């Protein structure tokens, strides 16, 4: 069970961009304790992997018990997903990362609003979306894209000198 926790915490860190080699002896005792299963392979890991593992161990060590339990549950849910679903989610996440900060902020706000709704309201919205045919969904997506383009244009105009 401890290994599952470590693996998930470390998996989170694969989104980190800081790449510095980490010597085993320079890891804190806590990091070394968490990463002990990897000690014999440590020198063979890439600099990127070492940094991500070290960062993941630090994050894991800094979490309280409730957060660790939550992370473990998320990890177990992730592991239970079929490979094609994992690929789909990773693709969606990559697309999200490619969005502008304004677009990401808008999505987060919409998600936050959705989370505030009652379970019944959420269910109704999901059902309403599921009932749309392909053409209706396509029109909805097109409207969303146009709305985002006009937001981008307004932002560009604001940035221009004298605009």
Task: Explain what this protein looks like in three dimensions.
There is one protein chain. The protein is mainly α and 163 residues long. The chain has two domains: 2-79, no CATH class; 99-159, no CATH class. It has eight helices and no strands. It is extended. The relative contact order is 0.08.
SSE arrangement:
Blueprint: H1 2-12, H2 29-35, H3 47-62, H4 65-80, H5 83-98, H6 101-116, H7 119-131, H8 134-159
Helix pairs in contact: 1-3, 1-4, 2-3
How much of the sequence lies in strands comes to: under 5%
Rg calc? 21 Å
User: What's the total helix number?
Assistant: 8
Instruction: Please tell me the total number of domains.
Output: 2
| Overall morphology | extended
The helix/strand order is HHHHHHHH
Counting helices, strands and paired strands, the structural category is mainly alpha
Average predicted confidence as pLDDT: 83
How would a textbook summarize the main sheet? none
Distance linking N and C termini: 58 Å
Secondary structure: number of strands: 0
Helix content: over 70%
Q: Could you list the spans in which at least 5 consecutive residues all have pLDDT below 50?
A: 15-20
In short:
This protein has 163 residues and is an all-alpha fold.
Features:
0% strand, 163 residues, mainly alpha, 74% helix, extended, 2 domains, 8 helices
């Amino acid at each position: 069970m401890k290994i599952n926790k470590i693996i998930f915490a470390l998996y989170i860190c694969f989104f980190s961009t800081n790449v510095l080699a980490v010597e085993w002896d320079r890891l804190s005792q806590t990091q070394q304790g968490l990463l002990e299963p990897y000690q014999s392979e440590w020198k063979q890991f890439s600099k990127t992997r070492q940094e991500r593992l070290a960062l993941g161990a630090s994050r894991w060590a800094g979490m309280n018990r409730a957060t660790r339990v939550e992370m473990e549950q998320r990890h177990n849910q992730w592991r239970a997903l079929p490979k094609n679903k994992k690929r789909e989610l990773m693709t969606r996440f990559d697309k999200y990362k490619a969005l502008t900060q304004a677009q990401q902020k808008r999505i987060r706000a919409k998600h936050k609003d959705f989370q505030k709704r009652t379970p019944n309201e959420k269910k109704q919205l999901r059902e309403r979306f599921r009932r749309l045919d392909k053409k209706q969904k396509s029109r909805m997506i097109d409207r969303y894209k146009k709305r985002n383009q006009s937001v981008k244009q307004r932002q560009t105009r604001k940035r221009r000198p004298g605009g």
